[in-house]
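FIELD: query
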Amino acid sequence: MYVFGFLLLVCLAEKQVNCNIQCLDCSDRSSPDVCRYATTCNEHEKCFVSQYVTSGGDLLYSMGCRSAETCKAGEAVSKRRQVGQDVIVCTECCEGDFCNVQGCGSSIKKLGDRGPFCFSCGVQNAPDSCRDLTQCSEGQVCALIEPQLRPGHYMSKCVAPDTCPVLNMLKSELGCPMCCYEDFCNNKCVPRNGSHTTTHTQAQVTSSATSIVPSPSTENFPSPRTEMLLSLSTERYSNADTTHPSLALQSSAPTYTQPTALHTASVVCSKGPRDVIFVLDGSGSEGGANYQKQLTFVQNVVQRFNVGFNQTRVSVVPFSTNVTNGFLLNQCHDNSAMCTLNLIQGIPYPNGESNTHIALQYVKDHVLTAAGGGDRSVPKVIILLTDGQSNNHTASVLTAAQLKANSLVKIITVGIGDNVYDAELRNISSDANHSFAVADFDALKSLDDVILHKTCDACNTKADICFVLDSSGSVDSLNFLKQLQFTNMVVSGFPLGKDTGAQFCVVTFSTNANLEIALGAQTDTNALKNDVLRITYRPGESMAEKGISLGTFELSDGNSPRPDARKILVIVMDGHSNDPGRTTNAAAAAHRHGIETFLIGVGPDMKHSELTHIPSGQDHVFTVSTFNDLVSVQENVKNIMFCQ
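FIELD: result
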């Protein structure tokens, strides 16, 4: 059914482009076409799709990469067999990029009767580094954009076709920005001579139901450096909860246009996830022009964080007489950075009284809650901007004190102009080092770096930490001991204690997962280290998803988790797991529980999908050649845990 396309012949003949194919890589999906993650296979691997029936009777699909030898040996033929509690109904292998978007009886609509499948990522370092996918709406096309604000970086997304002529006028010899009109086509720039900067083998699907063959033609392709904010002009978001108390969320953000003062970020916060809440004074004393300068300041700060649903989340709470027209921490799920910037730009000027206490109470009652997306155990930074004193000084200070009682919360205040009440802002802020003043709204830009560093440095050293250690058969007992020694090196950096210090647990995994040391079972460092060294090596299969799931349970639902402590998983893996799709799904579940995940990959056999999706961010992943090298990363792991 699937054959290599022309680009594969070019790849094999010239050896100048990436010959490794790309495939969908997901587990437990209702159909292959709802998978939203791409992976690059290793050499001599093919795409596969499997259909299976779960113990609960659900018919699901898994897909990813599989060695050509395994496919040839008979794993790629349709046959019923049982794996664990699942019954495999069909498995098919295919060759060519994203050929496993259908198979095992599934099919997709013809392009034209649906929107295209496109790559969808915020700012990336290379055109082909994006791994997240989306299906665009009918009438949209795929686009790859090189932002004016971040030259040499790229964003991929869906756009309306009427944006493409503008991009076409800006196209450079490098071939970006560009629009393209087929599935999975926006991960390469197409120079004017038509040769791609990065090339993968595209699948040609002979079925009349679909067409997944990116056209090599550049006739209609626009190009480079268009502004990041121009690229957002056609974006709309309609996932707002307009019924939420007090805060009328925007159901559709206005067109995102470039604020005149927005500038290129010189410093970017690369530390772990956090929740950042901007509380903006929109009282009548400001005027609309000055209020817009606050929004520009917020945009300047936000674009320097790694914004994402499992990374840094952002909320904006505008206030005057009441709180209106902002958005909560969980407002943006997909395309989080672009969605967030778009929503900020669309917030209207409230124009009313200065009821600061109502805004702070709203943050407490609605933003820092599960319903508002603020229930993760990550640092939470509230940034209050105001040009005057609150109508109710006592209530404002009291509510701020209630917020600060949570050890995860830091409050930064910025007073603008001569009419602020300095003592009030100092009492609202976490301390004098978190209270700032500027002469006027134009001077806000002088605080960009200061606020960034204060927000980025916010850290909670009260932590519940669980190690998930690989005990599979490929490790051997000596290398397992080296993992235990690595664990003790990290443990030595933390003061233990149930009230203010760290608590630890240890999980091992092979064919099954075992809770070796329960969270908080030891409060003495030396006793804990002795217990770690007594853990038994249990060889078996590499079922990492079971270890991650057990660690997640211990940190979120076990006997001793603390709601105001950071939750951290430190996962050590010797190569890829038996089921990378299920492993990355288990990590995603940990992220949804607000757990920070570190991954230390040992050896050359780690899957790109696991290196990308298991850790909380790229500063949370480390790779070493052998278990002897674990000692080389333990200081870096501790430094990030301590937010250093």
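FIELD: remark
The radius of gyration is 26 Å.
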